[in-house]
Amino acid sequence: MTAAAPAAVLRPGSAADVAKVVRSAYESDRGFAVSARGHGHSINGQAQAANGVVVQMTGGRRRSSPEVFEKMMYVDVWGGELWIDVLRSTLRYGLAPKSWTDYLYLSVGGTLSNAGISGQAFNHGPQISNVHELDVVTGKGDVVTCAEDKNSELFHAVMGGLGQFGIITRARIALEPSPQRVRWIRVLYSNFSGFTHDQEYLISPDGQPKFDYVEGFVIVDEGLINNWRSSFFSPSNPIKISSINAAGGNVLYCLEITKNYYQHSDPESIDQEVEALLKKLNYIPGSVFTTDLPYVDFLDRVHKAELKLRSKGLWDVPHPWLNLFVPKSRIADFDQGVFKGILGNKTSGPILIYPMNKNKWDDETSVVTPNEDVFYLVALLRSALENGEEALTLERLSDENRRILDFCDEQNIGVKQYLPHYTTQQEWMDHYGEKWPQFYKRKMEFDPRHILATGQRIFEPSFTSMTRKSNYESNGSFGIENGAITKKILRLDLHLELARLGNHTSPTSSSPLFLSPPLLLEERKAPNPRVLVGSHPYEYASDGVMVDMASR
Fold this sequence. Notes:
alpha+beta; Uridine Diphospho-n-acetylenolpyruvylglucosamine Reductase, domain 3; 3 domains; four-stranded antiparallel β-sheet; 15 helices; 27% helix; globular
């Protein structure tokens, strides 16, 4: 778990609010860090801004709802909008976004800053491949509209850019007619090569997609086929490996697929189509499990499981997740070394594995993927538990993650981290490889003072040298020689900048962001003091700590 104290938290009502704060940081002599925060699901505290400003994009002051353009088949949404709310808005018009994440309570800007993937990505690409246009606040405080054919360098930089080049305040998302129901199917394999062969067959680009969603997961001995990601099986009737006559030892693989259909569809024809497709697969005979449910319920399946875990106190625990893109040519080696090796027979959470087509990803974006036509996502979505004789503690799971990465490095498997986390710039340079020069050039163009998303630890803020002695390269953090004195200097400087903004009006707005003179700065002597600046409250965190637990 990573913790850091920002000096203030902005709850913006518009892109102009965000721009004013970023511009202040950019133009000030000392400067301060600014980080956007969505729904708080970053992996290792990347949304934090020590002694700076965190822009809380979700919640806060009321903004307009997603605006659906039915005839044009797209929706305009605020960057802090949750995907579940985007879905609810578009369904009123019988429409829905094409590409999803498994969990919908994530912000639009947050997933687009990474990529946004789920079982539809093999066909539609990640979410960043389904965006027409963005409004972005750059690290200079400029509000820029960008698209493939307009300010394209910024557009491509921001897509999967980890918040390094700008804060997404509006996104125009592509839509399609929404299905009404889903045929949800799971089949089991004991042979890894058969499992991956069928997955790759199902995502092959020849002809029309065979299913609408293709994922899979690994099941180890003593683990249930069901897990917290869904309520596919009834809790009263769990399925265990021991009930399957498998010759593959302690590991099984589950292929998860769906077929979408509409109200006017003939259920019998859907049955026939699914049955014909299943005949071409090489799963364990008798291991077909099928259910039928509304489209919305399928998309929101993980949230329903989340509510169950919350009720048992099993959700708000550390989640040392590890997400990797593995090249197709080495996925069998990964299976032998990790699934059948390092992990043993305890997992403490789902392990996803499914392939995607590289031609559905735009190489101009900032995301890094293996250089093969097909690559796999392997997501170890594990939770740290402290009870039991063989407890999978945070320390043990973190150690296993390191062993997995070391194994991949030693075997030259060529994995790339998705939702990457590194602690030195050299590691980031290795991660981006041949893309690093372009990534660096874009950073210098759009955020030259390194103000944005400092929690990623990719670039050291240019202003830290005025008040700190950096030990970034030595321990992967922005260290200070005299912490107490420096913190006071940074906080005072930030308050002066906020006060200066109180007398500032935007060219596009006649009203100041903060209360006009006399400016009121009130520091309350409370456990969580606040600085109230007009009608735009800042949460003051000098005595508090802003915490990002591992993503979930």
